[in-house]
Amino acid sequence: MKDIYESPLNSRYASKEMKYIFSPDFKFRTWRKLWIALAESEKELGLPITDEQIAELKAHADDINYEVAEAREKEVRHDVMSHVYAYGVQCPKAKGIIHLGATSCYVGDNTDVIIMTEGLKLVRKKLVNLIDKLAKFADEYKAMPCLAFTHFQPAQPTTVGKRASLWLMDLLMDMSTLEFQLSQMRLLGSKGTTGTQASFMELFEGDEEKVKALDRKIAEKMGFDRCFPVSGQTYPRKLDSQVLYTLSGIAQSAHKFSNDLRLLQHLKEIEEPFEKNQIGSSAMAYKRNPMRSERIASLARYVIADTVNPAITASTQWFERTLDDSANKRISIPEGFLAVDAILELYINIVSGLVVYPKMIEKRLNEELPFMATENIMMAAVKKGGDRQELHERIRQHSMAAGRVVKVEGKPNDLPERIAADEAFGLTLEEIRAEMVPSNFIGRAPSQVTELLENDVRPILEKYKDLLGLEVEIKV
Question: Is 104 considered catalytic here?
Fold first, then answer.
């Protein structure tokens, strides 16, 4: 529909898979799975629930009668009780035991944890594929010298692959954080109105072991190894904050990459993919704007800022429960996941088609290399009998003059020619240029890349090899 607002994260950016995880259908199907897990667990612990009732619930786990639930919600203004009612319409024999002893947060909060966990697993899949593709790029270009920068001023050379390894290192740190966060995901369980499990103590006639076993059974049936040991009516809202900070870390890494790539594209050294019929500018037909990198930066800023929402929510909850978290959670959590999903797809797309221009990389490095090679040139002259202190001063003067030629006159760097013409050095132009081989100035860059790939990347790719092979296609 064109006459109502729709989030661009939904209509333009996020993947079908992530959008489904946060869809109403996934949520309400999960509600029914939780009601089945509750009924099964209560039956196993001795409550008078029959196999026939359980079978009836399972028979209608997926064919949700949405129209009945929606009509009921208009009457009672309560989403959970509307779906309890609709489920009961389909399951008349089980009607009386649906949601037995539970509060709304039993389905609401447990489902939120399940949704975030599934979202993190999808993020992990895409992060693994991104690491794989970026690792291949780093390996391919690990020995190609290029000009490195500090303060965006020319510094010592590095390699194209070594620079990519910096982006890769950020992602490896994100993977570590993501794996830890997944290990911390746990269900609310069945805690009741204020977290005391009083309603379940009533159901099980004061048997604490059965009440504790109920949490364990529900967690196991839903694919988790534990529940929060204590809570109010809801799971601790710090969990939302921790999850969003995990997503923020990925956004930070992607933003850094997008900044570097846009600068490299300006330098004409490396470009993001640009399709045959893509238009870069409505006014300037020749332009190849880095729109994918720019979109990463734009979405990343949103995610980084979005982390403030659950942080404030976690810090402002009152005692065992207030409802001022609900509307915020409905927006901040899904939008954070959808944005990171879009960021990772863009990142994968870019890395899969990076365009490298070796001649431009070589040209820019050679323009600055004479300055960087002055120490080597001076040592070569000393070996021929030159005075180190005198040569240092002469090189300083020649370097200043050559710098003026480049900056003021716009001419090529003529420092090698100036030194060759200075008899104090006793070096020919050929000897000077022999000291300016780029590979002599890159230190351990190739080895560092190789070691990172072997020691840090390979174990991750091996661990998650079943997740590899993902193909992405950006929408606009």
Answer: no
